[in-house]
Amino acid sequence: MNKVVLSSVIDLISGGTPKTDSSEYWDGNIGWLSVTDFNDDLRYVYESEKSITKLGVENSNTKFLEIGDIIISARGTVGAMSQIGLPMCFNQSCFGIRGKKEIVSTDYLYYAIKNYIENVVKRSQGSVFNTINLASFDLMEIEIHDTIPKQHKVTKILSDLDEKIELNNKINKELETVAKLIYEYWFVQFDFPDTSGKPYKSSGGKMIYNETLKREIPDGWDINSLSDWIGSDKTGDWGKESEQGNYVFQVDCIRGTDLNGLNGKGKIESPNRFILKNNKNKQLTPFDLIVEISGGSPVQSTGRIAYLTVESFERFDHPLICSNFCKAISLTNNNYFYNFVYQWNAIYDNGILFGWEGKTSGIKNLLFDSFVNTYKVCIPPEHIAKKFYSLIKPLELKKQKALKENFELESLRDWLLPMLMNGQISVEDQ
Question: What value, to the nearest 5°, has the Cα angle with vertex 254 and ends 340 and 168?
């Protein structure tokens, strides 16, 4: 093993932004990364929120990153990193890193830096980097295996695990796409199967204009507020960090930051807490839905939702509660479970919940009761909702199985990473 200064084994690539905000520079076909586009949850980044034109690239200092190059955040969440999945440009809030091929492979370098990440964001004397600049890389020292063949062997062990994780994520993304398409086909276009198995609206099914929704809906469908779907709710809790007094009931606490992970889009890092025995009634159960009621951001509304199935609980060691920035709801009829989930997500994705937010002490709060009591939707007959449930459930089972496998693979990878990188597990040249 050799200890090296990071700047001595890499080529640093700086990002940039066009000097003016001309419309000719944006919405092109070239990805343009910022720190919000990647994180430590996924090894590769394939897409960006913003895109840039060739003219925009020519009128800025931004550079292209190649497949396999490393991108690391220099501001905001300092030290977040991923590898590039497709050639893209990036802004000045990040650095691109490419290993010097005669010394270190870039794939190996990714894992070496990942292992060192806590030291990347802290100086040796303990003060935290608010930003990373060019000089910062002269302060970072990492240990690397002394031959490229050894590096390749280490990389293969870890990459095989990450590739399986990524494959599972791609499968889950496809399953989610299929489920969403079925929902839109049945409940937006109203082409659910009629009694003959044909698409209802396209086959001439009777439609009735509804004055409340200002649109036609299938004959026989009801119009109700979202609250009519909801049977009960549970408030959140935060409890104590350790067992003390009557705080003895051990739980895992789902926060707003864990909702994406619960839905299969990132990690879950729910803290372990202790709540009062008398608050056991706040314990979550299958078919509960967790809604974020406080938080959000200027570009993200409150109201994100995550749902719990029987299989969801296999990913946790303790009973579940949600934090007091969330609330859990249960439906009156679980045959409508997936119908409600996809309906709520469509409302959220369309930005409707921005209009149902209040603000106290600088924190945005979802006006939950006002929203669910006021917002009207059409409710399908139960036999149609039940058919939709039966279609989505096997997709969900596959998704949860993959998420559980990913958790196990990530745990194995994270256990192996430091031991491979510091030589506790030895590898030999091929």
Answer: 70
pLDDT tens-digit map of 319-356: 999 999 999 999 999 999 999 999 999 999 999 999 99
Region of poorest pLDDT, from 127-131, 150-154, 351-355: 127-131
> What b-and-e string marks burial along 46-68, b requiring 16 or more CB atoms within 10 Å of the CB?
eebeebbbeebbebbebeebeeb
- What angle do helix axes 106-115 and 148-187 make, rounded to 10 degrees? 80
Q: Which residues contact 409 (CB under 8 A, 6 or more apart)?
A: 161, 164, 165
- ∠ CA 354-374-355, nearest 5°, is 10
Domain that holds residue 341: 222-379
Report the C-alpha gap between 203 and 217 in whole angstroms. 14
| Phi, psi dihedral angles at 302 (to 5 degrees) | -70, 170
Q: Which residues of 99-130 are buried (b: 16+ CB within 10 A; e: fewer)?
A: beeebbbbbbbbbbbbbbeebbbeeeeeeebe
Q: Which residues of 381-415 are buried (b: 16+ CB within 10 A; e: fewer)?
A: eeebbeebbeebeebbeebbebbeebbebeeebee
CA angle 401, 407, 411 (to 5 degrees): 150
Using alpha carbons only, give the angle 74, 75, 76 rounded to the nearest 5 degrees. Answer: 140
Residue 293 has, within 13 A of its CA and on its CB side, a CA count of 20
185 found inside a domain: no
pTM: 0.85
Can you give the CATH number for the domain in which 25 is found? 3.90.220.20
Same domain for 136 and 6, yes or no, is yes
Report residue 134 as tokens.
């060019």
